[in-house]
From TrEMBL:
GO terms for cellular component: outer membrane-bounded periplasmic space. Gene3D superfamilies: 6.20.370.110, Biosynthetic peptidoglycan transglycosylase-like, DD-peptidase/beta-lactamase superfamily. Residues 345-605 form the Penicillin-binding protein transpeptidase domain. The gene is pbp2A. It comes from the Bacteria. Keywords: Carboxypeptidase, Cell membrane, Cell shape, Cell wall biogenesis/degradation, Glycosyltransferase, Hydrolase, Membrane, Multifunctional enzyme, Peptidoglycan synthesis, Protease, Transferase, Transmembrane, Transmembrane helix. The chain crosses the membrane at residues 29-50. In the C-terminal section; belongs to the transpeptidase family. In the N-terminal section; belongs to the glycosyltransferase 51 family. GO terms for molecular function: penicillin binding; peptidoglycan glycosyltransferase activity; serine-type D-Ala-D-Ala carboxypeptidase activity. This is Penicillin-binding protein, 1A family. It comes from Lactobacillus iners DSM 13335. Residues 80-249 form the Glycosyl transferase family domain. It holds the Pfam family Transpeptidase.
Length: 692
């Protein structure tokens, strides 16, 4: 019976073989399969060859041997960026012991192979088949260099193919000595240490050139698993691995039997003399530079951090240090909350003529790499600092003047009966515009926005670069009522128009130029441009009024000693149920040379986290401190106008001196000028009446 079954099976197999033979012969199946495989190989090879040839391998050593360097606005070195960079040393400064240990352990045929090993690849393929997935191993030193320096650590077929092609190209471009140098300087040795020089310092307190056989074998052994084999945390594991490496060195005829025995018997003496470099001197500014390189110029973070780029920025180191130092003084800030949460702050300095960002500090306390930068990313309600943008600038643009009388009566507006109050609860029939600005009166601001029309205020905001959501298009805009909020950078940019004769920079920026490690330009900023958004007269009259804020108004205590600053304060109140205090405090100030916008407050405002007391009391110390340190290093360009208060005082004095000697013609001219101003005010009031 069994014999019969076997015969039937053999008969079926014979028929199947005959059928396949006929099919293959008729349709040339095997030839087509071979052609298809060759086509796939050709396409894949062409793709990866093009990718490798266009990847600029020639700059690899330069990028590995140098850190990405940040330069300031004067092209002076300001600091450096690095994530996977140790102290780069040439092969002549690396002990032959570590060279031999690594080659014996990782790639015995290093000096003979073409960048890859057929034997190693076959072994890796068999291991992958056994484990039913891509596994590591089988890579030469050159392939490991390609993976560590140019590729990701993902174990995929495409990554392994890439690794192979990059290794071939590296082997073609560089000598074996260069490849070994790059590998040893780019390898990770655990405990946050990259490169053999820093590893030698970290574990043995000596230079890489001084390593003995035992120490060299220990470091070489760590390459397999730095966390498991490092002698600080796992001494016994490290010793076992060291002895294995020593045996491999002996087998590879790099050391003698007696040297191997001595190395395996020796005791490891650990000593740490490694000191981490601190090139990240201006953390928030550097964070912003990295962000701009990524988002504006399309670079990858790992390339920015590790490719040895040269980034030329707009940084003014004296400005940056002045602001950073002021943030280190706890007394410059409101009191810390009962639970220990600090009041936060942010400042940004912008060149009003170019839009160049000169300094950035985005918070207090511990810095997190590319973390929350309040100066550029935070959006908070600006309070009264918005009044010049939404109310007074458009009013001046539409015929009003700095000394126009505004209503200061407690009153209600619109169908909803909106009733703003002055913070000091002081009212009068009228008040000059400049005094309303200096004292930050709320009623005159709302009254004036009502007169010129909300649409003009909204359009003015947009001209200054700040969009107003539909829900915020109401009279509360006059007092900074913006649900979306604004950032300090937006406010500094907007006020640039007042400092720059009515011209607003088209763009704020931190990066002027980026070059690769060899000096080739990768990206470059185009010429600075700006556009006019308010007239010369409006810019001058706004500056006259805003000078009064510091000399006679709400920012008197923030006035830097010996310097003139124009600007505006702002604050937002907490709910009455919390108590008497604010959740946001602002000062945006400027000279003809620089605009500095500063905010303080708690990240999250609640009954336990707000600033107690009167409006801007918590921010004035900080602003005064940073401006007194910053301004001495500025060009000290003088304002072309005096404050409105000084102007009015001079005008009244001149009137008294000339009263007895005024000619009949002078009196007529003064009368006509005064009448013209009154007619303009009457006309603007009439327009507002009909509109509303």
């Amino acid at each position: 019976m069994i014999t019969k079954i076997k015969e039937e099976i053999l008969k079926l197999l014979g028929m199947l073989f005959y059928f396949l033979k006929r099919i293959t012969h008729r349709f040339q199946l095997i030839r087509w399969l071979i052609l298809a495989c060759l086509t796939v190989i050709l396409v894949v090879s062409t793709y990866y060859t093009i990718k490798v040839k266009t990847s600029n391998i020639a700059t690899l050593k330069a990028s590995l041997s140098t850190t990405t360097t940040i330069y300031d606005s004067d092209n002076h070195q300001a600091g450096s960026l690095y994530a996977q960079k140790g102290s780069f040393v040439e092969l002549s400064d690396i002990s032959p012991n570590i060279q031999n240990a690594v080659i014996s352990t990782e790639d015995r045929t290093f000096y003979k192979n073409p960048g890859f090993s057929i034997k190693g690849m076959v072994r890796a393929l068999l291991m992958s088949m056994l484990h039913r997935g891509i596994v590591g191993g089988g890579s030469t030193l050159t392939q490991q260099l390609a993976k560590n320096a140019l590729l990701t650590q993902k174990q995929t077929i495409s990554r392994k193919i890439e690794e192979l092609f990059f290794a071939i190209e590296i082997n073609h471009v560089y000598s074996k000595r260069d490849i070994l140098t790059m590998y040893l300087n780019n390898a990770y040795f655990g405990n946050g240490v990259w490169g053999v020089q820093d590893a030698s310092k970290r574990y043995f307190g000596k230079n890489a050139s001084e390593l003995n056989i035992s120490e060299a074998a220990t470091l070489a052994g760590m390459l397999k698993s730095p966390s498991y084999y490092n002698p600080i945390d796992h001494m016994q594991n490290a010793l076992n691995r060291r002895n294995t490496v020593v045996n491999l060195m002996l087998q590879n005829k790099k050391i003698t039997k007696s040297e191997a025995d001595n190395a395996q018997r020796s005791v490891l003496s650990l000593k740490n003399t490694f000191r981490q470099k601190s090139g990240y001197r201006y953390p928030y500014f550097f964070d912003a530079v990295v962000d701009e390189a990524i988002h504006r110029y399309g670079l990858k973070e790992e390339d920015v951090m590790n490719k040895g780029l040269k980034i030329y920025t707009t940084l003014d180191q004296s400005y940056q240090k002045a602001i950073q130092d002021s943030f280190e003084i706890d007394g410059n800030f409101p009191a810390t909350a009962a639970d220990g949460v600090m009041a936060q702050g942010a400042s940004v300095a912008v060149d009003p003529k170019t839009g160049a960002i000169r300094a950035v500090v985005g918070g207090r306390g511990r810095h997190v790499f590319r973390g929350y930068n309040r100066a550029m990313q935070m959006k908070r309600q600006p309070g009264s600092s918005l009044k010049p943008l939404a109310v007074y600038a458009p009013a001046l643009q539409n015929g009003y003047h700095y000394d126009t009388s505004l209503s200061n009566k407690l009153q209600k507006f619109g169908k909803n009966g909106y009733e703003p109050h002055n913070v000091d609860n002081q009212y009068s029939d009228t008040i000059p515009m400049y005094q309303a600005v200096a004292d930050s009166k709320n009623v005159p601001a709302v009254w004036l926005l009502d007169k010129i029309g909300i649409n003009r205020g909204v359009q003015s905001m947009q001209n200054f670069g700040i969009k107003v959501p539909s829900d915020d298009k109401n009279l509360a805009l006059a007092l900074g009522g913006m649900s979306a909020g604004v950032s300090p950078l937006q406010m500094a940019t907007a006020y640039s128009a007042f400092a720059n004769d009515g011209n607003l920079p088209d763009q704020t920026y931190l990066i002027r130029k980026i070059t690769d490690a060899n000096g080739k330009v990768i990206s470059q900023k185009s010429n600075d441009r700006y556009h006019r958004i308010i007239s010369h007269r409006v810019a001058e009259e706004m500056t006259m009024m805003l000078l009064g804020v510091f000399s006679n108004g709400t920012a008197v205590s923030a006035q830097p000693a010996g310097y003139e600053v124009a600007g505006k304060t702002g604050s937002t109140e907490v709910p009455n149920s919390y108590g008497f205090g604010t959740k946001d405090q602002w000062i945006v100030g400027y000279t003809p040379d620089i605009v500095v916008a500063t905010w303080v407050g708690f990240d999250k405002t609640d009954k336990e986290h707000y600033m107690h007391g009167i409006s801007e009391n918590g921010i004035t110390r900080l602003y005064k401190s940073q401006m007194e340190s910053l301004l001495p290093n500025s060009p000290l360009t003088k304002f072309k106008v005096k404050s409105a208060q000084q102007n009015e005082y001079a005008s009244h004095t001149d009137d008294n001196d000339l009263k007895s000697s005024d000619s009949f013609q002078d009196k007529i001219k003064k009368g006509i000028d005064g009448l013209g101003k009154k007619v303009t005010e009457w006309y603007n009031g009439l327009k507002g009446l009909f509109k509303h």
